[in-house]
Amino acid sequence: MRVLLAGGGTAGHVEPALNTADILVGRDPATQILALGTDRGLEVRLVPERGYDLKLISAVPLPRRPNRDLLALPKRLRRSVREVREVMERQGTDVVVGFGGYVATPAYLAARGRVPIVIHEANAKAGIANRLGARFTPYVAEATAGSIKGATTLGIPLRTAIADLDRVALRSQGRAHFGLAEDRACLLVFGGSLGARRINDAVAAAAPQIVAAGFQILHVVGDKNLDQGAELSDIDPSMHQNYRRVGYIDRMDLAYAAADLALCRSGAMTCAELSAVGLPAVYVPLPHGNGEQRLNAEGIVTAGGGDFLLDEQLSAQQVARTVLPKLADRGELETMGLSAQRMGNRGAGEQFADMIERAIGGSGSAGAGKPSGLEERES
């Protein structure tokens, strides 16, 4: 299989694409993976780090409102579509697998009528690119039911280390890895790949109260935010021992195993990972965009696997008021974890890989044929 991945810009687009690539190559090492990207996205770093080839094309941001960029859109789009077709010709592409973002729209247009298109939508509210591409193919998967009409709800392809994680078995290893105590409940705090300064400020201010109550914190502040909370380690020995600050974690599986409760943003990948491994969370949705972060976590919260703490409510007092009762109640944490796990899907990546293989086997051109076991989508 020669697979062209189209998902760039943010980690939320790139990570599911790379996780899918890992699964496909794991099934057949002869599979050829090529990723599309632009020079402005995280794929420039993330794709080579995972060992895959990356081809850059011209970015085509889709304006959300009428402006000068809208007038230039047709010309830019034609150029990018031409660039994608050149890449497809050189690769001999068998299927285009899209995850949204800047590169997805030209990829879908370039592939239409030539090779099968398979789409994955990670967010609860679908982006423009995937809504457009979904008109061209019956092979569409979504993480949250209702994001794209007629799509198959699967969840998000996860890294193997997360999909296979046994939190109980790795608990001691995780705590030893981060220098955490075995006998204190642990709050894991993170704000995404770059951290979140508002969350960091509130948690750092609440940390003395949380530690004094007998708990510990593993705080991923982000490499650019290492100034936040730095002074707390000098307050007293208990803060030094029980408030662990790190810039970045490359072993989130061990962090999830070490933690009893998370406080974090509610990006689609974060919600998928926490629910899959059964880690309860207090979600602080990013207030920007079109509200998709709240929607991403809404099902988990409704099911009892987490709670919301709104960004505008962030304060030391509110963080402490929200997390302390949960950390003190082992029974509630276990119940929340089971509820979260019922909303997750560790097998989403394998199911999505099945869809890709059906698309290649079921048609020689995009939209032709109907995949086995999948209802025909409505345009």
Write the layout of secondary structure elements.
Layout: E1 2-7, H1 11-27, E2 32-37, H2 43-49, E3 53-56, H3 68-91, E4 95-100, H4 104-111, E5 117-121, H5 128-133, E6 140-142, E7 152-153, H6 160-163, H7 171-177, E8 186-190, H8 197-212, E9 216-220, H9 237-242, E10 243-246, H10 252-258, E11 261-264, H11 268-277, E12 281-283, H12 292-303, E13 306-308, H13 316-327, H14 330-342, H15 348-362
Tell me the CATH architecture of the largest domain.
3-Layer(aba) Sandwich
Strand content: 5-15%
Number of strands: 13
Query: What can be said about the biggest beta sheet?
Result: 7 strands, parallel
Radius of gyration: 22 Å
Average of pLDDT: 89
Q: Kindly name the structural category.
A: alpha/beta
Order of strands in the sheet with most strands: 3-2-1-4-5-6-7
Order of helices and strands: EHEHEHEHEHEEHHEHEHEHEHEHEHHH
Measured between the Cα atoms of the first and last residue, the distance is 27 Å
Which fold name corresponds to the CATH topology of the largest domain? Rossmann fold
Q: Write out the CATH superfamily name of the largest domain.
A: Glycogen Phosphorylase B
